């Protein structure tokens, strides 16, 4: 009985996974768990291995039968794609390993590493194909073609088109760089085989030897595609800025919590797809009970994890709201900073008094590309004009992500 129940569960989960793939193929919105995402990636990799092996066998046969170096090179490219799909599956398998003492944030970045390998494979094939094309120009050979073989070559193009669409749509739906990189490689393969077929037809019906020149053009495109894919993968490994859609999604969620006076200093840390950690500073009324503030912060963090799948860590900044003299001084400092440069902002303002003279400590937020130390000295000088006897300490803070939610 238990076995039948397990079989039913397995069949139901398999149907759900295939349902996700079908939705992705038709550009429908896909909500998918991390575990299911890895299964989809593995299925896509297996499909890639089978289809590329099929194409490699056909093109090896055509290359040998027609005495075409470019077809043999194209076959070698498909063999490389088979290896890339194998690496992609291995990457998904490694990425799903749970966190451990040495890798507390999990192993999801293995997926990026597999994408890096695929990108390097594309570059390698581009260089190899360039060399083969030059050799074909220097030493042209006679092609042996017939209509049946040209039709077979055209079928391989259709298979690659289908493979490209499949990998791109599924990769975009589950946000998988290796699958998207594989889709770009498949598109390159479509161009490669198309150029090979067109050049073969031209050489078959004329005396022009254009196969080598066409191969050089395609090789350049492969290299461009490989470099683009490589840079995108390196960006993810280095920790690039998230897209504005993700930032706006976080900002909209933070704006829902009216108990918090404001948010700033947003930072995102990605440890792989669906492994996003966010830190942010939350301004809380200084008079609020500490236990109450702690409960609010816990609730915000729980909602982020439940609704957005984001691990949120909040740092509390207490803000004085009921001291008129304090608030007046804060407004004065903010006005001086804004008058100095409208792109500047401040937060974490602390004011203490010594012999009735206010002393200021605050963070000066400077936009990327600005000279922080120079702006700090300018702001310091402007504040000194209004508060010549005050002690002023300014800490620089670079605003890489434009988030400054204020509700005061």
Structure characterization notes:
The chain has helices spanning 2-25, 34-66, 69-95, 110-138, 147-173, 177-205, 211-238, 244-254, 290-308, 324-340, 372-386; strands at 262-270, 276-285, 310-319, 345-354, 357-367, 392-399, 404-406. Strands 3-2-1-7 form a 4-stranded mixed sheet, covered by helices on one side. The protein has a 3-stranded mixed sheet with strand order 4-5-6, covered by helices on one side. It is 63% helix and 15% strand. By secondary structure, the chain is an alpha/beta fold. The model has no long low-confidence stretch (mean pLDDT 77). A hairpin with a 2-residue loop joins strand 4 and strand 5 (357-367). The protein is elongated.
Major sheet, described briefly?
4 strands, mixed
- The secondary structure category is alpha/beta
Strands of the biggest beta sheet: in what spatial order?
A: 3-2-1-7
Globular, elongated, flat, extended or rod-shaped: what is the shape? elongated
What is the CATH superfamily label of the largest domain? Answer: Cation efflux protein transmembrane domain
Instruction: Give me the strand/helix succession.
Output: HHHHHHHHEEHEHEEHEE
**Oligomer classification:** single chain
The CATH architecture of the largest domain comes to Up-down Bundle
Could you tell me the CATH topology label of the largest domain.
Answer: Alpha-lytic protease prodomain-like
Query: What is Rg?
Result: 30 Å
Task: Tally the helices.
Answer: 11
